[in-house]
Design goal:
This protein has 13 helices and 17 strands. By secondary structure, the protein is of the alpha/beta class. The strands form three sheets. Strands 1, 2, 3, 4, 5, 6, 7, 8 and 9 form a nine-stranded mixed sheet that branches.
Length: 411
């Protein structure tokens, strides 16, 4: 516990210094100076800015009317040389403290250096209340604004004819692109994955489902998130690719981890040859005291439930839900399956603690969910089905044999 608390203090003191030193008041002053310099002095202030944008792959739902609702999600932030310096210093500092306070059993998890590319996204300044211009195809131009965390979430209704034309232009039946333009005329490209009304969608957790994170252990979670190279759950890429090839299903990665880690998570998904898909992660907020508390919070549970309902409400697609026993996936998926039984085709849960299939937790989480719909797996290749259209016969229920009462000895 001591090592975890010390690391969190070090990391977030460094991040907090950047956050508060470049606070909202200073941000407004900087914007005012930029505006005056640009309009009155003719200066090119864009080259002094280090603003960037992260666009998260999102979904476009075909509505029953035939047109499309395209959903966009992005994050606008500003980096600086100072933040790069703090990234180096905080990495070295956290590493030294980890070795000082770690036990001999724990220090193995901190043998590598904290990776700066994973810390840097937490050490930037959110660009709040900034106009973002959106260009979808050649006909549709919109403007949106970032919120107090530099994020924008918006959707637009686009005629089916225009979407079909974009698909032809891009020579892609499932993905179209759009452009997001910042106030420095910097252009960023995002992806929208198109979902027709009917079909099959795989909604998959990431941590401890396809990537080893060990979310139940505070020390190992930090080490696996910020220090060690990402490790794949062996067999999951092959299973997912098999489902993609057989069913042409869409994939949606629904995670409790911070969206500040999206870029390296997407790189991991690509490097391991998982099917391309949309990403739905949470933005790390300063009220969270640690990654562990963030991942296991009530907000994370609601994040997953709300996104699952969003898929249910906006399509008629069948859903296959894949998760693990390290978080609340069994309870969340079981709840959704009871609420929308016709929409959830299968549920697969990876047993991270090697729990038994008839573990009391699973029986409670999947109460009233047909037994043939849910499966607890350990080895993906061995345990998971290759054909999702085949619904297996429910295994016979397991009853615990009551203990026999000892016979009373004759008097």
């Amino acid at each position: 516990m001591l090592i975890m608390d010390s690391l969190v203090v070090v990391l977030f003191l460094c991040i907090g210094f950047v956050h508060f030193n470049d606070g909202q008041i200073m941000h407004k002053i900087q914007d005012k100076i930029k505006k005056v310099a640009s309009q009155n002095l003719g200066m090119d202030v864009g080259r002094y800015d280090h603003e960037e944008m992260m666009l998260f792959p999102n979904v476009g739902f075909q509505r029953k009317e035939g047109d499309w609702r395209l959903n966009l999600h992005g994050w606008r932030f500003q980096t600086s040389k100072k933040n790069k310096f703090l990234g180096k210093s905080s990495s070295a500092m956290a590493q030294r403290i980890a070795r000082l306070v770690a036990s001999s059993e724990q220090v193995v998890y901190y043998n590598d250096t904290f990776q700066r590319d994973r810390l840097k996204p937490f050490m930037v300044q959110d660009e709040t209340n900034e106009k973002i211009h959106i260009m979808i195809g050649s006909k549709h131009n919109y403007t949106t604004k970032t919120d107090n965390e530099g994020q924008f979430r918006t959707s637009f209704i686009i005629p089916n004819a225009d979407v079909q034309q974009m698909k032809k232009t891009l020579k892609n039946d499932q993905v179209i692109t759009y452009k997001a333009i910042g106030d420095n005329a910097d252009i960023w490209e995002g992806k929208i994955h198109l979902l027709e009304r009917n079909g099959l969608s795989i909604i998959s957790d990431i941590d401890d489902t396809i990537k080893i994170s060990e979310v139940l252990d505070k020390i190992r979670l930090v080490a696996n998130t910020f220090i060690h190279g990402f490790r794949v759950v062996e067999g999951m890429p092959e299973v997912y690719r098999g489902w993609k090839n057989k069913h042409n299903c869409s994939f949606h990665y629904l995670s409790a981890m911070p969206d500040q880690l999206y870029t390296i998570t997407k790189d991991f998904v690509d490097e391991q040859n998982f099917p391309d898909g949309t990403f739905h992660m949470r933005h790390f907020r300063w009220a969270s005291t640690s990654i562990y508390n963030f991942v296991h919070s009530v907000d994370t549970k609601m994040h997953k439930i709300n996104h699952l309902r969003y898929f249910v409400f906006n399509t008629l697609r069948s859903l296959v839900l894949v998760g693990d026993s390290g978080e609340r996936d069994p309870e969340i998926y079981g709840n959704v399956a009871r609420m929308y039984p016709k929409r959830v085709r299968r549920i697969f849960i990876r047993a991270v603690k090697d729990e038994k299939d008839d573990d009391d937790r699973f029986l409670k989480a999947f109460k009233d969910v047909p037994r043939e719909k849910w499966l607890i797996f350990r080895d993906p290749v061995r345990d998971l089905p290759k054909d999702l259209d085949i619904i297996p016969t429910a295994p016979p229920p397991k009853f615990k044999t009551p203990a026999k009462k000892p016979k009373s000895s004759p008097k």
